[in-house]
Design a protein that fits this description.
CATH superfamily: Vaccinia Virus protein VP39
Structural class: alpha/beta
Number of strands: 7
Low-confidence stretches: none
Bound molecules: S-adenosylmethionine
Order of helices and strands: HHEHEEHEHEHHEEH
Strand order of the largest sheet: 3-2-1-4-5-7-6
Strand content: 15-25%
């Protein structure tokens, strides 16, 4: 059991609402930030238990920013936790938020989980995640639920929207996909049941490398080059 799960199950805290398999995913992508001074933004506060969980996990080293549409949540503010009241689907609110807080090392979207909320939040805030930071969007199963604006293969679902990120990651290799901010700033996409974790890193056009002595006649490689099956885009 990792520290997050331990906190959830054994420590005294306000209510936390997560899915049971999320703790392993958080720990896998966030443990390298422990011991560092970091900034976190969580969208969706509810009773504030998850904010206490981050305080516990990062041993007070994290400054925690949080957003909720419910004005009651403002009561949960403390020295280390700054709370902003507004809607994650309101672009002007998110723009003002960006002016009020530093770029964050971790952003967790655990708000209302509608398609519009998840897409607007990503479009507005991905660029406010610092270099080498982590963007986490939770509860992606709502992409399949009508009530949240989702539906299987529905073009405006967050799942369908984020599938385009796979192409953007590979934009270096095809003129058909423009190289954009996602291409240049995303190291990797990690899909889990209901969670997408994006790890940010400054990226440059990759190149292939070889080392070591040639030990066999590589007939196949010659054929590949001759047939333009590598280094050229297959139509
Ligand atoms: C799933 S709960 C958050 C749970 C909390 N992160 C936890 O782990 O315990 C979702 C929260 O999102 C808030 N919310 C719903 N719609 C929102 C919106 N449009 N903008 C911001 N917050 C919203 C709700 O008020 C609720 O507190």
């Amino acid at each position: 059991m990792n520290e997050l799960e331990h906190f959830f199950k054994n420590e005294d805290h306000r209510m936390i609402h997560k899915w049971n398999h999320y703790f392993e995913i958080y720990d896998r992508h966030l443990h390298h930030l422990k011991g560092k001074k970091i900034n976190i933004l969580e969208i969706g506060i509810s009773h504030g238990g998850s904010l206490q969980m981050w305080e516990y996990y990062f041993k007070g080293m994290a400054t925690i920013y949080a957003v909720d549409i419910n004005p009651e949540c403002k009561k949960l503010e403390s020295d280390n936790i700054k709370i902003f009241i507004g809607s994650q689907e309101d672009e002007s609110f998110l723009k003002k938020l960006k002016q009020s807080i530093p770029p964050v090392d971790v952003l967790i979207d655990d708000g209302g989980h509608t398609m519009k909320q998840q897409v607007t939040t990503f479009n507005q805030l991905f660029d406010h995640v610092a270099e080498n930071g982590i963007y986490i969007c939770e509860d992606l199963h709502t992409s399949y639920w009508k009530h949240f604006g989702g539906g299987y293969k529905k073009s405006r679902s967050f799942i369908e929207f984020s599938k385009n990120f796979i192409d953007k990651l590979h934009a270096w290799h095809t003129p058909k996909v423009p190289i954009d901010a996602i291409t240049k700033n995303t190291h990797s996409l990690h899909y889990y049941d209901s969670i997408l974790v994006m790890e940010k890193r400054k990226m440059e056009k990759p190149f292939d490398v070889k080392a070591g002595n040639s030990s066999i006649e590589d007939v196949h490689a010659k054929d590949l080059v001759a047939n333009s099956l590598i280094y050229k885009e297959a139509e």
